[in-house]
């Protein structure tokens, strides 16, 4: 409600003949609401656009000798998208049907700076006209004057204006879409903020950022945790392109963005050429397509760049961070007694996972404790040292008989042959060497074969994303401290199926490593 406006009864006494209007203001994209830094450097701030519309509404209302008794505002909300709800627009319709504002002022009409502020689609305009004309005599006001939307001429005029607005909205969307598509086909980078790793031209690499991004991709493929990579970014004093700290989700998006290997995406989908291969841009690349696919395979569905666009579901149920080396790998083999349905007591193996937890003891800062029976525990550092001894011995023996294998998809040649056949077939069709019948009989089969082979290659790369390292190399990197906790646990889970922990002897406070029994993954 405008400041200083009298109550409904007082206003009726002061100006009994006054026309009382409600005002509506809307703006589709308030970029200042999303960029506080830009807003701070400008005289324009978030909400300035809709405020200016209300100021013009006030001026026009005074010019027409009318009084605005309530203002409705939808900022940063499009009226042309079907899934966008405008809260104040809906509130205005409810008040129009009731005939009074929330404070009880009579409503004689609606004023706004233009018809398209209210309407960009037919359904909105029909709802508005129905609500406005629910009470006879109410008018629609714009800077050019008032309109009676119950008159045939005004209905036709507003309908034509609505159609023009709709066409303009469609043309604007098409121009923007075509502009983006042209840039994609020309191999040009996207518009918008500078991407991390590139200069302002979005084509030339920025050494400090691109070197870190390339290193982060390689280390992630090897199994490093994203949190470890973020700590390295902090150590190098690197920040995002908008000055923010590099956190896990941000770095994940940087590493899995298709542009790091030269690919281009549109609306969360890779842009492909006529042969089904990704379209390659003109900018300098950070890594290879093979490494990009490999790093994407290390993340769960929904967390990569291609799955984080507008409208996609966000990640939920994120697992709790594990802080101890043997958590969950350890299993309890303590015997527990329980009563069955018949009331008989039976004995079974607990077989519950054993996890680590901090203690207040200086000798053992953390213990591993069974989460099932709660009666089987052991010093954490003692178990971790024993797990490493078992692992080191196994790696040393494995190195003796180790033979490296090539990290190459075995059907790569078959895929290339199919692609070349399709290209040759299409060229012959273009040159009129073969007719339409032969082309359309053979092309769909080749296209389907190529699609299936590409999908098979992607699945294979996901399964082999981390490649294979020599056991001796793993041993050296472990001992040198190159691996973080996530990488160490990954190696343990590959070497062991589980490690059983037997219960200790009551009263014996000395840890006995013989209680541990490894179940090797042959």
Automatic annotation (TrEMBL):
<feature type="domain" description="Resolvase/invertase-type recombinase catalytic">
    <location>
        <begin position="21"/>
        <end position="189"/>
    </location>
</feature>
<dbReference type="InterPro" id="IPR006119">
    <property type="entry name" value="Resolv_N"/>
</dbReference>
<keyword id="KW-0175">Coiled coil</keyword>
<feature type="coiled-coil region">
    <location>
        <begin position="443"/>
        <end position="470"/>
    </location>
</feature>
<dbReference type="InterPro" id="IPR036162">
    <property type="entry name" value="Resolvase-like_N_sf"/>
</dbReference>
<protein>
    <submittedName>
        <fullName>Recombinase family protein</fullName>
    </submittedName>
</protein>
<dbReference type="InterPro" id="IPR038109">
    <property type="entry name" value="DNA_bind_recomb_sf"/>
</dbReference>
<dbReference type="Pfam" id="PF00239">
    <property type="entry name" value="Resolvase"/>
</dbReference>
<dbReference type="InterPro" id="IPR050639">
    <property type="entry name" value="SSR_resolvase"/>
</dbReference>
């Amino acid at each position: 409600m405008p400041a200083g406006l009298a109550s409904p009864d007082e206003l009726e006494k002061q100006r009994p003949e006054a026309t009382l209007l409600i005002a509506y203001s809307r703006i589709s994209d308030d970029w200042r609401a999303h960029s506080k830094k830009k807003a701070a450097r400008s005289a324009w701030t978030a909400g300035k656009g809709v405020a200016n519309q209300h100021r013009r509404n006030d001026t026009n209302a005074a010019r027409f000798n009318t009084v605005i008794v309530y203002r409705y505002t939808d900022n940063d909300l499009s009226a042309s998208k079907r899934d966008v709800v405008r809260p104040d627009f809906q509130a205005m319709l409810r008040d129009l049907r009731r005939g009074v504002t929330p404070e009880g002022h009579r409503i004689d009409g609606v004023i706004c700076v233009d018809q398209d502020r209210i309407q960009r689609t037919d359904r909105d305009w029909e709802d508005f006209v129905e609500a406005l004309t629910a009470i006879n005599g109410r008018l629609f006001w714009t800077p050019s004057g008032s309109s009676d939307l119950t008159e045939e001429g005004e209905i036709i005029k507003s309908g034509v204006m609505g159609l023009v607005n709709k066409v303009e909205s469609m043309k604007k969307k098409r121009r923007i879409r075509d502009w983006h598509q042209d840039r994609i086909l020309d191999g040009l980078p996207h518009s918008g903020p500078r991407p991390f790793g590139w200069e302002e031209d979005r084509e030339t690499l920025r050494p400090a950022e691109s070197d870190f991004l390339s290193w982060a991709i390689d280390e992630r493929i090897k199994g490093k945790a994203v949190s470890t990579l973020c700590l390295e970014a902090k150590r190098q004093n690197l920040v995002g392109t908008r000055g923010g700290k590099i956190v896990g989700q941000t770095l994940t998006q940087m590493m899995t963005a298709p542009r790091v290997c030269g690919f281009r995406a549109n609306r969360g989908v890779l842009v492909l050429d006529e042969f089904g291969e990704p379209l390659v841009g003109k900018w300098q690349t950070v890594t290879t397509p093979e490494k990009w696919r490999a790093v994407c395979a290390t993340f769960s569905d929904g967390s990569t760049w291609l799955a984080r666009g507008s409208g996609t579901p966000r990640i939920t149920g994120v697992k709790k961070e594990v802080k101890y080396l043997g958590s969950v790998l350890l299993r309890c083999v303590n015997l527990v007694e329980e009563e069955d349905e018949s009331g008989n007591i039976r004995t079974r193996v607990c077989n519950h996972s054993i996890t680590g937890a901090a203690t207040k003891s200086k000798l053992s800062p953390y213990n591993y404790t069974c989460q099932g029976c709660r009666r089987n525990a052991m010093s954490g550092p003692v178990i971790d040292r024993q797990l490493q001894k078992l692992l080191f011995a196994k790696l040393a023996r494995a190195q003796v008989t180790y033979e490296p294998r090539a990290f190459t998809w075995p059907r790569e040649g078959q895929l290339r042959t199919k692609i070349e056949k399709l290209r040759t077939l299409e060229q012959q069709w273009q040159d009129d060497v073969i007719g339409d019948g032969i082309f359309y009989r053979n092309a769909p089969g080749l296209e389907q074969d190529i699609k299936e082979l590409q999908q098979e290659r992607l699945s294979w790369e996901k399964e082999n994303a981390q490649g294979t390292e020599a056991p001796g190399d793993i041993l050296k990197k472990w001992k040198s401290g190159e691996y973080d906790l996530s990488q160490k646990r990954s190696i343990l889970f590959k070497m062991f199926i589980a490690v059983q922990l037997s219960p200790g002897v009551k009263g014996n406070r000395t840890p006995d490593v013989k209680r541990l029994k490894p179940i090797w993954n042959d």
